Amino acid sequence: MINVQLLRDPSFVEKLGLAAKQKRLDFDADQLAAAFENRRRIVGLVDEARARQKSLSNRFRDADHETRAGLQDQISRASDEVKVLTAQLNAAEAQVQGLALRAPNLPDPTAPVGTTDEDNDVIRHWGEPRRMEPDMLDHVELARRLELVEFDRAQKFAGSRSIALTGNGALLARAVLAMALDLLVVRGFRPVMPPVMVREEAMVGTGYFPLGVDDAYKADREDRFLVGTSEVSLVSLHRDEVIPLSNLPIRYAGVSSCFRREAGSHGRDTRGLYRVHQFEKVEQVSIIEADDELSAREQLALLDNSETVLKALELPYRVAVACTGEMGQGQRLKYEVETWMPSRAAYAETHSCSSFGDFQARRSNIRYRTSAGDAAFAYTLNNTAVAAPRILIPLLEHHQQGEGSVRIPRALRPYVNGLSSLDAGTSYSELVPAYAPA
RNA sequence: GGAGACUUCGCCUAGUCUGGUCUAUGGCGCCGCACUGCUAAUGCGGUUGGGGUCUUAAAGCCCCUCCCGGGUUCGAAUCCCGGAGUCUCCGCCA
C-alpha cells in the first residue's frame, strides 16, 4: 500500500503515474488523487455534522419535556444529515481503498526501466554453462530412467501440471530443501512451517490481492486461500503488531508447499518439472527497520544466501536486476537469480529476491518502535532459498554423466547418506541412513 | 459438528444486566520532574491510536476509535443481527 497522505502532493501523484506506466500496470494515479481529495472533503462535512448532532443530543438529554419537543425537529434533521453524509463517506472511502490497493509502489531509482526480461540488467555470472550434447538427456528423460517422477499417473487424478516425486526423486528434493534450510538456520534465520491456507487479509496484506486473485486457489468455503509462497504467511505473522526495536531484524526461513494456478500461462512450460501447480519451497523473509541503506544491505545478504545454495549445488547461474516492467506491484528492487538449464539452453528463473520498502508493512499494519519512540512501518524483503521440483531440472541435467547417471554435488551428499552418484540401479534405501527403531 | 463463556486505549483490568458528563476506571510498564552520593524505593505529573482543520512550526479546536461489519435510537463500550478470534465441555480425529 502506498501512503495515501502523499497524494496531496501533486509531484507524488505524477511519480505514481509514472511508476504504474513503468511497471505496466493498469492504474490511474489522477483518479486515485481525485478520490482521495473527495474523501477528505466529505470527512470534513461528516465531522461538522456529527459535532452538531452531538451538542444537540446533549441538550436534548438535559432538557425538560417542553424544550425537548422544541428540539425534536432540529435534532432529527441533524441525525438524518449525519446518516446521509456517513453513507457518502463510506462510499468515498471504499473508492479510495479500492484504488489504493491497486497503486504501485515506486520502483527503486536504480532499477532499470524497461518492459521485458530483455531489459533486465545482468550483473554477474557464476559457473560454466553446459551445452546439451547428443548423448545428453533432458530432465524428463532422466527422471523417467531413474524413476524419480510420476507424470502421467499424477495427471490422471490431479490434472495438468501435477506431478508426483517418487523414490529417489522425493529424497533428492528433500535433500535440497533440507540443505537450504540448514544454511539459513546457520545464518540466523528462524525456521518456520507456517499455515499455507490463509484468509484474504493476508493475501491483501502482502500485496498479492486484489491484482493476483486469479493466480490463487480458494481453499475452502470459509474464504481461505492457498498461498503461492510462504512469504505471505511469514510476513503476516506480524500483522497488526508494533515490534520492539530490539527484536529487529526478524529473519525467517519458511518451509512450505506453494500453490499457483498459473492463470494466463496456458500452454507455456507444460512439459516437465518447470511449471507445476504445487511445489515445495524454502523461503527467506526479513522484516527490518525503515531504512533504505539497511534494506539494500539486507537484500544483498538474502541474495548471497541463494547464491551460496547454487554454488553448493555446483550449478551455473547468473544474477540480473529486474527491469521495472518485470517487477510486481509492490516491489521496489528485484534481483532474479537464473540457473542454467541445459535442455532449455538458457538461464531460467529459480530465485526471486525482492525489497518492498514499507509497502507490505502498510498493508499488513506491521510497525516497529523507533529509537525516537514512535511507531513506524517496517520494511520487508524476501527471497527464495530453493524451490523443488524446479531446481531438480538443472541439478539432473547439469550433473548427468552418461547412461542416465547423475553425480551428486559434494555439499548435498550429507543429505543423501553420503551417496556420490545416482543411477537406475540405485535403490532409494541407499539415500537414507540405516535406521533401527529403538 | 453440538453447548457455553469471553474479546475494553502496550499488558492486565473496572464498566455492559439498568443506553446519556464513559470526554472509559485502576494496576503494571514507559516518559518527565522531585527526593537521593549512585541505584533502588517513594512522591507528583504525563502516557491508545487514527483522521480533519489551522499554522513556518508548535499549541489549539473538531471527528472517529471499547475485536470487525450492519441495525435500533435524538444518542451505543452498553441493546439486536451477522462475521472473526480465544477458552471450556461433548463428538470426531493424526
Short summary:
It is built from eleven helices and 17 strands.
Record keyword descriptors for this entry:
single chain, 438 residues, alpha+beta, Helix Hairpins, BirA Bifunctional Protein, domain 2, 2 domains, 8-stranded mixed β-sheet, 3-stranded mixed β-sheet, 11 helices, 17 strands, elongated, RNA-binding
How would you describe this protein?
With about 450 residues, this protein is an alpha+beta fold. The protein folds into two domains: about 5-100, Helix Hairpins (Orthogonal Bundle); about 115-430, Bira Bifunctional Protein, Domain 2 (BirA Bifunctional Protein, domain 2). It contains eleven helices and 17 strands. The chain has helices at about 10-20, 30-60, 65-100, 140-145, 150-160, 170-185, 200-205, 230-235, 290-310, 360-365, 390-400, and strands spanning about 120-125, 150, 165, 190, 195-200, 225, 240-245, 250-260, 280-290, 315-320, 335-340, 345-355, 365-370, 375, 380-390, 405, 420. The strands form five sheets. The chain has an eight-stranded mixed β-sheet with strand order 1-10-11-12-15-9-8-4. Strand 13 and strand 14 (about 375) form a beta hairpin. Helix 2 (about 30-60) packs antiparallel against helix 3 (about 65-100) and helix 4 crosses helix 11 (about 390-400). The structure holds one RNA strand of 94 nucleotides.
